TrEMBL record:
Belongs to the NAD(P)-dependent epimerase/dehydratase family. UDP-glucuronic acid decarboxylase subfamily. It is an enzyme of class 4 (lyase). GO terms for molecular function: NAD+ binding; UDP-glucuronate decarboxylase activity. The keyword Ribonucleoprotein does not apply. It comes from Haliscomenobacter hydrossis (strain ATCC 27775 / DSM 1100 / LMG 10767 / O). Its cofactor is NAD(+). This is UDP-glucuronate decarboxylase. Its EC number is 4.1.1.35.
Length: 312
């Protein structure tokens, strides 16, 4: 049985990845310190003998007994309000945490896939963003702690690949959504769903003309699975190219929830908020044979079913 370690397993993406790899017949070690995660996301896996949970801060030395075939390194605050609140932890998990995970991969001779982000492109001057674009990041702005941590993550991963011959994969994930996002994590979808369900104002930042391209979590998980099993070592964008404005996104959620009390409440645009974002997924299509399957209307409906059960 193949053994895989998933850092950040109690988070949104880590918990879906844990489910997927259990389903594929792997033994999964989930590691987390619950900084932004929620143990309820993985509690259903605790009775399984194929699943183990290690409560550990990966910025400290990581030890795992026995063999390890694969590592998925997903631990990191991911929502802007989380990393603004925890700038040092964000930098440490991107730098020290990634170093520890790469060291573990080297020791165990395991293949490692690290979670990077579309934020490495910053406020992009090229649109859509292909992997060849180097980005436009303000290192000393409020988002710099996350963006630069992830740029370091990519740099140290490539260095371990070329210098220590570690078998590495780098995924650049674009905005992903689905069940198990934290209601209060401040990202746009949990914010809008909870506000629409409660009949409050949907806090659209700026004039809502900034764009994002939202990918449903099952599609992303499929892309991660394929990239892990591929033999491609350079960064690959995985996301849904279907771009929309944040105003349009708010309207779609208002229409779906149908609460007559909900309205649009304009708020100031946060500093350095990227104006546009859309993945060029040519590489993912050609190398992984991957493209997203779940249209936004369908993904939003599935996600609404979840938020109905957790929003009070
Ligand atoms: P999340 O906050 O739900 O999950 C992150 C998990 O990492 C949490 O469970 C948290 O407790 C854990 N963690 C943080 N610091 C840790 C530490 N020092 N030691 C151990 N565990 C720690 O976020 P998510 O949306 O699931 O994101 C997961 C990964 O994917 C992150 O690396 C993020 O940068 C990346 N990513 C996510 C998106 C997205 O749209 N969700 C987009 C781009 C990149
Ligand atoms: N946003 C918004 N209202 C909110 C939260 C976010 O208008 O309550 C906007 C935010 O300014 C950004 C977009 O929605 O332009 C996506 O924000 P999110 O924090 O989800 O992720 P980002 O892509 O910025 O990391």
């Amino acid at each position: 049985m193949k053994k895989i370690l998933i850092s950040g397993a109690a988070g949104f993406l880590g918990s879906h990845l844990s489910d997927r790899f259990i389903k594929e017949g792997y033994h999964v070690i989930g590691m987390d310190n619950l900084l932004t995660g929620n143990i309820q996301n993985i509690e259903h896996l605790f009775p399984l003998k194929e699943f183990e949970y290690y409560h550990h801060d990966i910025t400290k030395f990581v030890h795992v007994p026995g063999k390890l075939d694969y590592i998925l390194h997903f631990a990191s605050p991911a929502s802007p309000i989380d990393y603004l609140k925890m700038p040092i932890q964000t930098l440490k998990v991107g730098a020290l945490g990634t170093h520890n995970m790469l060291g573990l991969a080297r020791e165990k001779n395991a293949r490692i896939l690290v979670a990077s982000t579309s934020e490495v492109y910053g406020d992009p001057l090229e649109h859509p963003q292909s992997e060849e674009y180097w980005g436009n990041v303000n290192p000393v702005g409020p988002r710099g702690v996350y963006d630069e941590a992830k740029r370091f993550l990519e740099a140290i991963t490539m260095a371990y690949h070329t210098f220590h011959k570690v078998d590495t994969r780098i995924i650049r994930i674009f905005n992903t959504y689905g069940p198990r996002m934290r209601v209060e994590d401040g990202r746009v979808l949990p914010a809008f769903f909870s506000q629409a369900i409660r009949g409050e104002g949907l806090t659209v930042f700026g004039d809502g003309s900034q764009t994002r391209s939202f990918c449903y979590v099952d599609d992303l998980v499929e892309g991660i699975y394929r990239l892990l099993l591929s033999d491609y070592n350079k960064p690959v964008n995985v996301g849904n190219p279907d771009e929309c404005t944040i105003f349009q996104f708010a309207q779609e959620i208002i229409d779906l929830v149908g609460n007559p009390e909900a309205y649009i409440d304009y708020r100031p645009l946060p500093e350095d908020d990227p104006k546009v974002r859309q993945p060029d997924i040519t590489k993912a299509r050609n190398i992984l044979g991957w493209e997203p399957k779940v249209p936004r209307a369908e993904g939003l409906l599935r996600t609404y079913e979840y938020f109905k059960t957790v929003v009070k």
